[in-house]
Design brief:
Blueprint lengths: L2 E4 L2 E6 L6 H16 L3 E6 L7 E7 L19 E5 L4 E5 L2 H15 L2 E2 L7 E2 L9 E4 L1 E5 L5 E7 L7 H10 L4 E4 L8 H7 L2 E7 L40 H20 L2 E7 L19 H18 L6 E5 L16 E5 L16 H16 L7 E2 L1 E5 L11 H13 L4 E7 L8 H9 L7 H13 L4 H16 L22 H26 L10 H37 L2 H27 L7 H22 L9
Parallel strand pairs: 2-3, 11-12, 11-19, 12-13, 13-14, 15-16, 16-17, 18-19
Antiparallel strand pairs: 1-9, 2-4, 4-6, 5-6, 5-10, 7-8
Helix pairs in contact: 1-2, 5-6, 8-9, 10-11, 11-12, 12-13, 13-14, 14-15
Amino acid sequence: MARFIFPSSVEIHVSDRRSDPCLAHAACELARLLKRAKITARQRGTSADSGKHCLILAPRGAPLPAVPRLTENLFPDAHVLEISKKGIAIASASGKGILNGVYELAELLGFVFLMPGEEGERAPKIPNDGSLAIRCRRIVMRPRFKYRGVFYSGPTHDFGVADWLVFFAKLRFNAVRLGGDAVAGKRGLFQRLGLRAEAGGHGYRDLLPRNLFARNPGLFRMRMPEDFGGKRVDDYNSCAANIEARKIMRRNFEKLARDAVAGGYHAMHLWPDDLPGGGWCLCPLCRGFGPSDQAMLAMRNLAAVVREKKLALRVPMLAYHDTMMPNSNIPPAKENFLLFAPRERCYGHGLDDPGCARNRFYLKTLVAWMKKFRGVDDAHTFEYYFDRILYRGLAPYLPEVIARDMRAYEKHGIKTHMALQVGGPAVAPEWNMLFFAKLNWDRGLSPKKFNLMIGAALGGGTRAVSDYLDARAAVFTSAMRMCDYDTDIYLDYRWLPENTGPFGRERARDYAESSNKLARAAAVLEKNLNAKGVRPFKELFKKEVARARFEAAELAVMSHQQEAVNHAACHLVNDDKNTLRAAIVSGRKMIDMFKAARVLALRAGIPKETPYFRNVNQWLTAEMRRKIKVWAKGKITDAKQ
């Protein structure tokens, strides 16, 4: 089998680096990675065909291999990697494609990119003779979506914004949304890493200063129609049809839009208030427009600023909560694009799984929105695979769901596939992010194959790591099912809903069984920490074991929580004191288990400022105590406060 054998010193030849900062970064990154593999690299310039970016690696002074031809119909950051006995050549239509090729080459050599920072990289093991070789072949890498990336909401623990952006580039993402204070001063970094950047988040209501309410309440929404005693309120959004309100919001948006363009941003996000329902206006001017139409009016109003001022900027229309299904009146402007955020879907099944009643509704909304946006390009997903709030602090591993979703989103015309990151891996890798990144490039990658690949890279000759990942995926795919709950109730994995039927009882059992299975998988992994191959990554997997133990405890909390609300719901139906007594018992068990889960979370190294402590453990404990007080008033004499 023909191979290119790396000498101890090589030259990196690149096309004109001055014209493309991403290409210059690619050459520097390759030199840095080779140094970690004990190979010295020197950079040199080279010529390239017009319109083609290239990078060539060859022994010093040796004839250079030919630059690969780009004959395929490829996205701009796709690349061709050609390995011959003479050396290695990467060609692409863009500098970003060359950078992607550098990271592809690094992974072929045995590098693994697990977390931000150089300490989050795993360098290949160098053979005893010091040689490093790679099999000769031609590889054409085509991404499945033109843009792939992350809605970043940081900072996250030990890693800053720049750390994450560099890591996203290693995963070959090319799109990112930054929110809050993270948006300023990043243009040069975006260019160096080849990232199309978007700015903003929840901010639509800020375009209409709330202090205007006292002088002109007509600018603001009416909570109920006039014949139901409707009154103006200054809480959420605005009056969508009030001419003066629209003018004020345009003026305030113009400055934000100009700043976004100056900062190098592709889109400006100003999402309306994200309410499960009731956040829009019911005044005589607005009541004929549903929530989705009012939101579309709002985004068309902002799009008009972009159009009139001739700004190179896009404005999203967010499909979310009460705007999940489009209304029929108002079309999008050409400056708008769809942002599809199915937060309350079932994450135990793929979006297009016909056996999941809940996801059938969300797929229907996607089809309807894509029809409404026909001819308006670049529909985005806003998925939740990396979110820590939705999953109550857990990091569920859902590769089967991600794989099935990706096929569905491709089929239905999504152009930019992105997922929200809130929190992030403080102690161990975000397995969903790593799988999502690889699957964007490897259509044939199955969860099993990915787990084996990670196991081979981090577990040597043992199946301990891949077996653990298999078990983790099975546990969470089962535990995250929400399929039989009605779509008209507000829920997520924190607010487990009351249920009087078999599905509620099944969920309580499943959470308990999932807790036991995950605890057993963690125990097996712990036993293998000293196994050959796993030992070099012992500290990493000690953290993984600790995280899994915390998650197993949290799944036990969910079991008692589901039992408690199920019993309470049954009491409302049958007025049986025994069911109310059972609700109190299960609620107390939930509170006790929350205490145990909190201890394990701290022991695992999960920072106190994460959503789990502020948004889940503390909040839900207080809520359950309030519920128990209400239930205890049902004349149950042994109920303790």
